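Before surveying the methods themselves, let us examine one representative protein, written as a sequence plus integers encoding its fold.
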Amino acid sequence: MLKKNMPVAEPYKIKMVEPLTMTTREYREDKIKTAHYNTFLLKSNDVYIDLLTDSGTAAMSEYQWAGMMLGDESYAGSKNFYVLEQAVNKYYGYEYVLPTHQGRGAEHIISKLLITPGDYVPGNMYFTTTRAHQELAGATFVDVIIDEAHDSNSMHPFKGNVDLVKFEKLVQKVGATKVPYLNLQACVNMAGGQPFSLENIRAVHEFCQVHGIKIILDATRCLENAWFIKQRENEHAHRSIAEILREICSYTDGCTMSGKKDLLVNIGGFLAVRDPKIYEKACELGTLFEGLHTYGGMAGRDMEAMARGLEEAIKEEHLNQRIGQVHYLANKIQEYGVPIVLPVGGHAVYLDAARMLPHLSQDEYPAQSLASALYVETGVRAMERGIVSAGRDKTTGLNNYPKLELVRLTIPRRVYTNSHMDVVAYGVGLCQERHHKIRGLEMVYEPENMRFFQARFDLAPKKHKTKADNQFSAAKSIVANLSPSLH
């Protein structure tokens, strides 16, 4: 008997392919050692399936490539800027748009504009580059996300929600004048790609209106957040993604955008605001750090491709397939008994490294170790999202210890097939089966800011086996007999 619903297929066909090469285990062992056990330091030619990030890794469409040929590279007044501006006005609802080279360019500008040293910037969990710009501008980041976001097992449908009690306590403690804005992230990255609800952003907006606090939206994955609202908030099931997106943005004062995610381009972003005075100041800073206000950090052809990418990305069939592939991978991984962050988010599957590698302490960088092991097993490149990414406390200099120790398997848009996802899931299953053999790491070089990009590691010294270790090995053998076989 046929299933009730037709399977979801890719809403495109493949016109051009890029060959991939599978390497040997010995080759990969050498390459990960040369890269100091940091997957960011691997060369792309040595990677089989690249799930490091979905930033700038999407496959552009024929419509976007055709638009590239219409690039107007005039230094001032490029016609492609006005196409992009019109698209942002139409879909996001912001009147003023400043192109930037990517999302962190927009984060830099808005941080310098709105933050006074000594301020506090609350947010629904931190993101690495966002927090770094806020701290460099003199602010202290304060996490006001709901507690469920820090629990990988919680099935709360909107773990990206702001906890209004936490937010209010901060305002009462430091005063509203010391809180220039709330940084609201769509599909919270460090929590596993978790969305916020429309009900929550409405309540947050009302609170901010009372206290005169701005809301700056990180709209990088807001299309995916809108999709989750449509799927999980019943009263919005009948609405279009475009309608939900416009309402989300209507409750905010501006947004930062990395077009390299939702908008299906390889480079570029923008800052969008409602206040003309903020825009004027942003243009001044943009000219200093990015480029003239009608191109910012982008070429004309890239602005055209971004505007066209927005037209394609907002279509429900695209989001159904894109997020559907992420969930396909999650289901395959779960078949091997691997612990992941639940519910599954919109752009990646997050492996719970702390639960996969219970024999490693957080100071042995379990997520970094697992990402390295996954590359060795299969040639799949993933990203650490745990203690390394969390960095150090700027005041004490001590490591931040996040509750979540994750490895992110990030799916580029329109790039891989589900057969690739099967290979990835199998590799994760191998790591689960051999988890007791995965050694911890020690950091041998650490940059001052955003260390996860360039930190270098070495294998931690081997531990001497204890009686408890032998008991653990025996228990593991029993569990292995109950788990799905990989052979």
